[in-house]
Amino acid sequence: MPALEIDSLHVHYGGVHALRGLSLTVEEGEIVALLGNNGAGKTTTLSAVSGLVRPSAGRIVFQGRDVTRARPEEIVKAGLVHVPEGRRVFSTLTVHENLQLGGYLVRDHAELRRRIDRVYTLLPRLAERRDQQAGTLSGGEQQMLAIGRALVTGPRLLLLDEPSMGLAPLVVASVMELVREVNSQGVSVLLVEQNAKAALKIAHRGYVIENGECVLGGSAAELRGDQRVVAAYLGGA
Ligand code: ATP
After folding, report:
1. Residue 107 domain flag
2. Closest of 36, 34, 71, 28 to residue 53, by C-alpha
3. Whose alpha carbon is nearest atom 17 of ligand 1?
4. Cα 46 to averaged position of ligand 1 atoms, centre (Å)
5. Measured from the CB, is residue 227 less than 6 Å from ligand 1?
6. Lower CB count within 10 Å: N or C terminus of the chain?
7. Which domain holds residue 9?
8. Is the ipTM of this complex over 0.85?
9. pLDDT for res 102
């Protein structure tokens, strides 16, 4: 059973037809990259999957369960967690408080502590900064905190929206390494990226989205070798 199946999804914002029959699949254990230009519909796809926008047609199935019209908190509880663009950490709260907030649905305090400890083991930089205000972290550290906070909810599938945005190349590489590590621990990932090169380095497969539709799909190696992808998204090099 796939981790996620999106079938012929349509989203309208008033008169704007943002998704026009988009279909894609994320298999269990995969990192799938979703590439596309500004305005193609990448963020809308993630928002629809996490229940933040209501599709006008089509179906979203998470681990065999139809979640097309489920509420955002039900979707998080089911194990599908969205890390939005722009690393929205709570800047006046500490690193530790941000991680605790990620566990707001976790009733068992001992379990919450274990999950936060696991994030600190994975991300020792956050452990060193546990009492620091999140707003004073570097951009890369804030991105790692945003992902760490999502991990505290115990996801089976992570939706990551442009985790590389605004980060220096070396920092992008360490964020991508974190995504790979999280994936190797059994979490499937749908990764939206403008940075196609970085995304295709860690992804197993990918899709190209244009005008609200997937126009191309394949393994990461196939996409890296595709002339259209090279010309449009890999800088023509
Ligand atoms: P970017 O990389 O720039 O974030 P994207 O591929 O994520 O782009 P979306 O943000 O999903 O694209 O936008 C898809 C289309 O829907 C665009 O034409 C956009 O202007 C429109 N759109 C997105 N959000 C809204 C909204 N809240 N109201 C009206 N139109 C919207």
Report:
1. no
2. 71
3. 39
4. 11
5. no
6. C
7. 2-86+155-234
8. yes
9. 87
